[in-house]
Design goal:
The complex is a heterodimer of chains A (321) and B (347). In chain A, helix 3 packs parallel to helix 5 and helix 4 packs across helix 5. Chain A contains eleven helices and twelve strands. Chain A is an alpha/beta fold and 321 residues long. In chain B, helix 5 packs across helix 7. Chain B is α/β, with parallel strands linked by helices. Classes of the chains: A alpha/beta (321), B alpha/beta (347). At the A-B interface, helix 6, helix 7, helix 8 and helix 9 of A face helix 8, helix 9, helix 10 and helix 11 of B.
Chain lengths: 321, 347
């Protein structure tokens, strides 16, 4: 794909949190990737690997320690007030917990319209009402629900309300931060299908963060695997799942429980020994080296580069190529 | 095989401001020595309620276990026992691991004190013996350097480690039954696989029978010996793992199996034409549960009788139990919409 199709360009992005004078937590460390228009980029990794921090830093919700995020040419972290407001209209976030992310004291209609009002996108009350009804309809809820309160809805319905709120300002790019992990399997399928339909109809671009690997594969065009603040592998979903290159990706994929009785996970699982290295003041070298059975002395000294192992498929490991 | 737990006609209702919710409706099942019984179903189907009813940890002021309910354990009916006797059974003979280790561990007590508490309550041991035993059990759940870890507080542990501590607490007294209520839902796949391995290993070593509650069919197939599917407070199908996955017989089980995204099924193109299956409709309101089949309203194969008469439990020769009219000899033969390896049909 050429550069014209790139919507979000992340360049050597770092986000460090200062714990105290000597301790620095490297939540996101030197990550670079691109998101093309109308694609879904999935991000997977275990909890604490920096997925959420990455999503928030990309949106400028956290200031970056170093590096750049270019959204359609706009430098997100160095934008002036007017540009930021414009950016917030074009890029939105979808949150994980449908119970904590909706204000219990506001009606569904007010929740959805809040963004519209902030961006001065509606002029009259009537217009606002119309937009809210359309949005509820879009996510498969009855427009009559707009005067109700969040506690009257189930988890799946609440997540739909969250989606309607996200879509209210007509964004082009949405960071979905584990939007389905709090839901039941059958409801997950409904919400994932809704995300799919909306992308198709509205031409949306997603950065989809999740830890459910089979769902991520279902929804993503390309997938990035994170380990302790680093992006260790990036590739097209099929390629990544069928030919994982990085030892961590291999271990992660091998731990997915399967419903196939003839091919259970326990028979093919690659076990990871040892505990996760701390992201506080990390030592040089590959962060996965301590748990990696292929590790050589070089892995503990030099951090591997992000290399192309196949067209469009990148991995950061000394043992490849 | 030796029965550890025998549950007969268990019904639990909850008295709420909206009315009486019939959360569990007349279920019966057995748990055998050293087996793993998995209960699956969507949220609100009563799987957690069942597990809490077994050890009588239901919300006291609103829950009511019906009088004919029997929970037989070591010759006693747990549903009828006074609270004082129950306290001696809980934690020692039947123990439980919950979904979210963070909320169930006391943040102001060290790990060592929390595991030791269980031992000091149920066993006559000196402090030195308790300490020794605690170190041993921490080692068993694969926490490295247990002597030092004893003095640490829950916040110093990661999510997976906290769940290991919970398991250590639950298994400290070598219980006969371990109830694990979604023990890995809050964890990553790699940690999840480790915890499942750990439960399996300890089960072999201590001879504990495990009731595992989950909504993940993948986990059910990995660790279960027998699987029980619940819907709207009832058990609608139960059988061995092979029976459930190779020849499922209830339309709800089919729907559950169909909605699992398989890792081999990626999205086909950028337009996303490959759709996930999702079961339409919602479960029935349990304040006024349907008299006939609870699933009839969402069932593709619904027949006239399904809305009128509650289906009986059909049992085939191998003990595969199904509560669906499709299993009646006069019912039309339908093709199972899920890909299965077994070619066995309804009997």
């Amino acid at each position: 794909m050429n550069n014209e199709n790139v919507l979000v360009q992340v360049q050597d992005l770092c986000k460090h949190f200062k714990m105290d004078q000597h301790k620095v937590l490297h939540a996101v460390d030197h990550i670079s990737f691109q998101i093309y228009k109308k694609e879904t980029l999935g991000i997977v990794g275990e909890s604490g690997c920096g997925k959420t921090t990455l999503g928030r830093t990309v949106l400028g919700l956290y200031p970056a320690t170093s590096g750049k995020v270019l959204f359609d040419g706009l430098d997100v972290h160095n934008a002036d007030k007017r540009q930021r407001k414009e950016f917030k209209k074009r890029a939105q976030i979808m949150l994980q917990d449908p119970y904590a992310s909706l204000n219990p004291r506001m009606t569904v209609g007010d929740i959805i319209a809040e963004g519209l009002e902030a961006q001065k996108m509606v002029l009259s009350k009537k217009e606002k009402d119309e937009r809210v009804c359309n949005l509820l309809d879009l996510v498969g809820l009855s427009p009559e629900y707009r005067s109700r309160y969040p506690h009257e809805f189930s988890g799946g319905q609440r997540q739909r309300i969250g989606i309607a709120r996200t879509l209210a300002v007509e964004p082009e790019f949405i960071v979905c931060d584990e939007p389905i992990s709090a839901l039941d399997v059958s409801i997950q399928a409904q919400v994932v299908n809704l995300f799919d339909d909306l992308q198709h109809d509205l031409g949306l671009t997603y950065l989809f963060i999740a830890h459910d690997l089979s769902m991520v594969r279902h929804i993503s065009d390309r997938i990035g695997v994170m380990y302790l603040g680093n992006l260790v592998e990036l590739g097209e979903s099929r390629e990544l799942y069928e030919h994982p290159a990085h030892p961590y990706t291999k271990a992660l994929l091998s731990a997915i429980p399967s419903v196939d009785l003839d091919n259970p996970m326990s028979s093919r699982r690659i076990r990871l020994d040892g505990e996760v290295t701390s992201p506080i003041n990390p030592k040089p070298g590959c962060r996965f080296a301590k748990r990696c059975k292929y590790a050589t002395p070089r892995c503990f000294e030099v951090q591997p580069d992000f290399k192309e192992v196949a067209p469009g498929h990148f991995a950061a490991c000394h043992q490849i190529g | 095989m030796e029965k550890v737990l025998e549950i007969k006609n268990l019904s639990v209702s909850l008295h709420t401001y909206a009315g009486e919710i019939k959360a569990i409706r007349n279920i019966s099942f057995d748990l055998f020595h050293q087996e793993t019984l998995v209960i699956v179903g969507e949220s609100g189907c009563g799987k957690s309620m069942t597990s809490k009813a077994i050890i009588q940890l239901l919300p006291e002021n609103i829950a009511e276990t019906s009088e004919k309910s029997q929970i037989m354990f070591e010759g006693q009916n747990l549903a009828q026992l006074p609270e004082k006797t129950l306290k001696n059974i809980r934690g020692e003979k039947i123990s439980m691991v919950f979904q979210d280790p963070t909320t169930y561990l006391n943040p102001t007590m060290t790990i060592g004190a929390q595991i030791g508490e269980c031992l000091s309550l149920h066993k006559k041991m000196t402090r030195a013996e308790i300490r020794q035993q605690t170190i041993e059990i921490l080692g068993k759940v694969k926490i490295s350097n247990p002597e030092a870890r004893l003095k640490q507080y829950p916040h110093e542990f990661s999510g997976g480690m906290r769940q290991r501590v919970m398991i250590a607490m639950a298994l400290a007294c070598r219980p006969k039954v371990l109830i694990a209520d979604e023990p890995t839902t809050a964890l990553d796949v790699t940690t999840q696989a480790d915890i499942m391995d750990l439960i399996k290993e300890l089960q072999q070593e201590l001879g504990t029978a495990v009731i595992l509650i989950t909504h993940d069919l993948g986990i059910a197939s990995e660790v279960g010996n027998r699987i029980q599917v619940m819907y709207a407070g009832e058990i609608i199908e139960s059988g061995t793992k092979e029976q459930i996955f190779n020849s499922p017989a209830h339309p709800y089980t089919w729907a559950l199996l169909r909605s699992v995204p398989t890792v081999s099924a990626a999205r086909t193109d950028s337009s996303g034409s490959h759709k996930l299956y999702s079961l339409p409709g919602t479960p029935p309101d349990l304040i006024a549960p349907p008299k006939a089949c609870a699933f009839a309203g969402r069932c593709e194969y619904c027949m006239d009788i399904c809305n009128r008469v509650h289906p009986p439990v059909f049992e085939d020769r191998d003990g595969h139990l199904v509560s669906c009219w499709l299993c009646h000899p006069q019912a039309p033969k339908v093709e199972i919409p899920v890909k299965t390896k077994g070619d066995k049909h309804h009997e």
